[in-house]
Write a structure and sequence with these properties.
Chain lengths: ~220, ~110
Amino acid sequence: MKKIEIVQNILEANESIASQNQRLLDEYKVFAINIMSSPGAGKTSLILQTIARLKDKLRIGVVEGDFASTIDADKVKDEAAAVVQITTRNMSEQCALIANMVSHALKCLPLGDIDLLLIENVGNLLCPAEFVLGEHRRVVISSLPEGDDKPIKYPVIFADADAVVINKLDFLPYVDFDIAAFEKAIKRLNPGVKILQVSCKTGAGIENWCSWLLDELKANRIGK
Amino acid sequence: MHELGVTESIVNIALDKAKEAQASKIVKINIVVGELSGFVPDCIEFYFDFVSKDSIAEGAKLHFELAPAEFRCRTCSTIFHSHDSTWTCPKCQSQSVEITGGRELYVENMEVE
Ligand SMILES: Nc1nc2c(ncn2[C@@H]2O[C@H](COP(=O)(O)OP(=O)(O)OP(=O)(O)O)[C@@H](O)[C@H]2O)c(=O)[nH]1
Ligand SMILES: [Mg+2]
Ligand SMILES: [Zn+2]
């Protein structure tokens, strides 16, 4: 019997495909956002709001990750410049997008005609945290009906986020969601994070979200 | 479930290293999994039999070591473990902390013949 020392990151394969994705995106000057949340927090709604507000300024592509259906892709297909659907049901990872799936999706998109790529991850706060895709920014949406304890239950996804969007602000009168405590819980793990409050139903706060996106897109271009 | 792809990566890493070492059989693989990561050892175990079938890793024993959540205080740099979710620095009581451990997922070593 012989012992072999290895110490090799098991996620290395995913990370190396993610860097290839990012190189490809950079080559075409596409700014990519990975949007993560629990099921139903408002990923598709935020994508639709973003397209509605920014489509005159930017050409927006969408990657829709979903376990089984094409419902979300159908909702955005008339609005976006291009949409690709990834159905994870028959793949080796079902609860999150992984870099390899996005790599295939990028081959199906007219990258030269896209400025902003919005990637809707599978609804889940645990698994998507582990798999980078090649995105430039990571965004987590939390909605008021879910409760304000999510950063404590799922610290990793919040610790890595560039922005956290608090959605369904119109629910505030009906739920006990302590926004100040929620923001504090995130900032103690992630002091540099941008936190935005929106309602995809009323449109409140969407303008701030879009200006954050535009600022980040510009900063990314200058940085390159 | 995202453990199938992860299990494939584990088997690939183990087979590569076994080949380099000219081993004929993999007996045991030691894997470190962070307590804060979303990976479930039981699921990896479940897929392992299927993924390793007909390779020299078939029948190998998987051993998981759970790496605890570890934090570094942003105020005084103390490193500490926290088993509840208060994540408060034991030295200065600061609540501003960085996650420095508990997110691991790696193959540490293995035993071969
Ligand atoms: N009241 C209210 N409802 C909202 C808001 N944003 C989204 N919704 C509703 O919440 C439901 C879920 O929204 P989606 O945008 O489909 O959420 P999702 O995160 O894409 O959901 P999955 O893809 O299934 O994980 C829909 O019925 C939306 O109309 C909001 O700000 N206020
Ligand atoms: Mg959706
Ligand atoms: Zn301290």
